[in-house]
Amino acid sequence: MTDADLKKTPLHDVHVAAGARMVPFAGYSMPVQYSGASDEHLNVRRAVGLFDVSHMGEVVFEGARALEVADRIVTNDLAKLDPGQAVYTVMCRPDGGIIDDLVVYKFGDEKILICVNAANRAEDFAWMRDQAGDDCQVTDRSDDYVQIAVQGPQAAPLLQRLTATDLATIKTYRFVEGALAGREMIIARTGYTGEDGFELYCSADDGAAVWAAVMEKGTDLSAKPAGLAARDTLRLEYCFALYGNDIDQTTNPYEAGLGWVVKLKKPADFVGKAALTQIKADGPQRKLVPFEVTGRGIARQGYPVIVDGRPAGVVTSGTKTPSVGKAIGLAYLPVDKAAPGTPFQVDIRGKPVDAVVSSRPFLKK
């Protein structure tokens, strides 16, 4: 795919003007870094960073049976949510394989918004529409939104300068519709960094103005833009799964450490429930574990994992992160080798290097 073939978010020109290094990602031209991945990572941990995540997809379910339809295609229990509440969940195949991990926003029983991963947008929408049939209206609204993630300990003080909405009343995984920087939007206390923060869903036409307003008001709070590289190291330190790396259609929630989002007792008979019930009863054969490289080297995605001298899988995510200051990663290991403290090895460019299973998360506040 050439640069000309890549999609551009409505904030593309803003990133280019700011000197961002742009790279292909999920079919989009996206900023990988601005001042440097480590600097951006640490600024999010210490102050506040802005991410353009407009490449993510938004699918809206509307109609009298919207809640019912959405509830039967995800594993978490949407019926228990209050209006204005969001939840993390997964959407599975009948065999329990993960189609995507999602954040669901419940406006009410007749309107549900689901945020999907950029690379899965078309496939997710087709699956959701097929599952819904004629029971409710399912609309791909991805091109209508700019999504800006404002993350870090100064996120709330910064955004409070731009809205009359009392952000202290928005608890984690809650959201409101209100005005910020003079534009109407969804203000959600959600994120993917392990820090406090918000994700703003505004009109695509308003995106550049909102980004500029947040940056201007955050000058004295050290607000800086951050790219995909920092987003990846931030999420890894908290062991947040990345679709396509750590989870995909060949993995199930129980082996991926996501059993907590599978509500087998919820009334809705959701897709994959029978398979997941059996998987839970049998117990997973492997587990996605966090690990630290104790030898010399950095484990990267795809590097072979060696257990008891034999190949046992590959690293799904791995790098050296700025806050932890160590080479860390995620990998699937046999369940009897998955306990914290268990040693194994990673094949780093043909050399077995010692590693040890860690506990979650790597960064503890």
What does this structure look like?
There is one protein chain. Helices cover 19% and strands 35% of the residues. The chain contains 8 helices and 20 strands. The strands form 4 sheets. Strands 11-12-13-10-4-14 form a 6-stranded mixed β-sheet, with helices on both faces. Strands 15-18-17-16-19-20 form a 6-stranded antiparallel beta barrel. Strand 19 (343-348) and strand 20 form a beta hairpin. Helix 2 (37-46) crosses helix 7 (228-237). The protein is globular. The termini are far apart.
For the record, the CATH architecture of the domain at 3-55 and 144-237 stands as: 2-Layer Sandwich
Bin the strand percentage: 25-35%
What's the helix-strand series?
EHEEHEEHEEEHEEHEEEHEHHEEEEEE
Might you state the CATH topology name of the domain at 3-55 and 144-237?
Gyrase A, domain 2
Major β-sheet annotation = 6 strands, mixed
Could you state the CATH homologous superfamily of the domain at 3-55 and 144-237? Probable tRNA modification gtpase trme, domain 1
Detail the poorly predicted runs.
Answer: none
Question: How many helices?
Answer: 8
